[in-house]
Design brief:
By secondary structure, this protein is of the alpha+beta class. About 30% of the residues lie in helices and about 25% in strands. Strands 5, 10, 11, 12, 13, 14, 15, 16, 19 and 20 form a ten-stranded mixed β-sheet that branches. Strands 6-9-7-8 form a four-stranded antiparallel β-sheet. The two termini are about 30 Å apart. Bound molecules: adenosine-5'-diphosphate and magnesium ion (MG). Magnesium ion binds near residues 230 and 243.
Length: about 350
């Protein structure tokens, strides 16, 4: 939609017939991400190609890059697809990550020091929204946890006493110029993003540090496109890199309504080799995710009270047009703009009440 509003025509490749992006695109190629004929067709139709989903095989992007301009670079996507490589990369950038170790084989289970627990075992690849993760209280639970993940390569991470989670969206052009959006504060429920509050309620030096860290990572990746870096903030202002996403990110959805230029507008500008947009935030914002759970009342289907949401001043409703609501599935979001941070929180409270969401704190 951002590219279309700049006057471009858009082609989407997605195997799903009901793909929300496919429905608004000028052209929907319904094919698998590895379908060589479809990839070739896409490269013939398009001047520039990007991805909005990090699990498109890096190799498909590599294929496309031989035929036309592709961003982000396949190499950066490959790192973001692998939690171990991602941590190694953050460390190489001089940044801190959670204490962790690789669990790639049964033999790796034996040498694990008990002091790493409580911990979380994460599949190295293909996890999102808390999927592919198991929490363990004691190392004795490790074997069973690894079995439950299908004995795939994993990373075991110490469970940290997080004070706040924050993220930074950085946009970097082909010419190496980059801009960052204000630091976002994220609250997760069950491993899924529930709420984003911007600006994050953190000290200014920590916000600067997070922005600089994200910019450094983009630079070192020779990144082109929109990149999100998620951080854990521990006591005393200690900032750790959690993970990165090589695409516009859920924690940046607030930019559509709250900033001079949205993260999607930036992505379109980067593809079109236009100057980067203005990341200035025009109003304090709270973003609430709308998960499929809201479409059910004790198991019975229902339609959430969007009429009541629409009645709240400053509430901007976005529904993605997904045909089937399922618990945990991201169906849409609401961004609530306020005169002040406190005002945005209060209005968000009204939206929570209308939808039956847990109140924002
Ligand atoms: P995903 O790819 O599913 O977003 P994350 O690694 O970001 O995976 O984990 C999802 C959420 O789980 C995090 O945002 C955080 O709330 C929690 N979490 C993950 N790892 C840890 C950890 N080591 N310590 C504490 N909480 C964690
Ligand atoms: Mg995450």
């Amino acid at each position: 939609m951002a590219a279309q509003s700049l006057g471009y025509r858009v082609c989407v490749l997605d195997p799903d017939a009901d793909s929300p992006a496919g429905a608004v695109a000028d052209r929907h190629l319904r094919a698998d991400y590895t379908d060589l004929a479809a990839l070739t067709q896409m490269s013939a139709l398009c001047r520039a190609i990007t991805t909005e989903f990090e699990n498109v095989p890096a190799q498909s992007l590599q294929e496309l890059a031989r035929l036309c301009a592709v961003s982000p670079p396949a190499g950066a996507v490959a790192i973001a697809q692998d939690r171990l490589q991602e941590k190694r990369f953050a460390l190489a950038c001089g940044l801190e990550v959670a204490p962790h170790r690789s669990v790639a084989s049964a033999a790796d289970l034996d040498g694990v020091e008990p002091s790493i627990a409580p911990a979380v075992l994460k599949s190295v690849r293909l996890g999102y929204d808390g999927k592919g993760q198991v929490r363990i209280e004691r190392v004795e639970e490790l074997r069973q946890a690894w079995d439950s993940l299908g004995r795939v390569p994993c990373v075991l991470e110490q469970w940290l006493p997080i004070e706040r989670e924050v993220s930074v969206i950085v946009c970097r052009g082909r010419d190496g110029a980059s801009v960052v959006f204000p630091v976002a504060e994220n609250q997760h429920r069950g491993g899924i993003l529930a709420t984003t509050i911007v600006p994050a309620r953190i000290d200014a030096p920590v916000a600067l540090q997070a922005g600089a860290a994200a910019a450094t990572m983009a630079e070192r990746l020779d990144y082109v496109g929109v990149l999100c870096v998620e951080f854990f903030l521990l006591a005393g202002g200690r900032l750790l890199v959690n993970e990165m996403a090589p695409r516009p990110h859920n924690s940046g959805h607030y930019t559509i309504d709250a900033c001079a230029s949205s993260q999607f507008d930036q992505q379109a500008r980067i593809l079109a080799e236009l100057p980067l947009g203005d990341t200035r935030q025009l109003a304090p914002a709270v973003m609430l995710n709308l998960l499929g759970d809201l479409w059910f009342d004790r198991g019975r289907p229902r339609t959430p009270r969007f009429d009541q949401v629409a009645a709240v001043a400053g509430a901007c409703l976005h529904l993605y047009g997904k045909t089937e609501a399922r618990p945990g599935r991201k169906m849409g979001h609401v961004t609530i703009l306020g005169e002040s941070a406190q005002d945005a929180l209060e209005r968000a409270g009204q939206v929570c009440l209308a939808l039956g969401l847990e109140p924002v704190r």
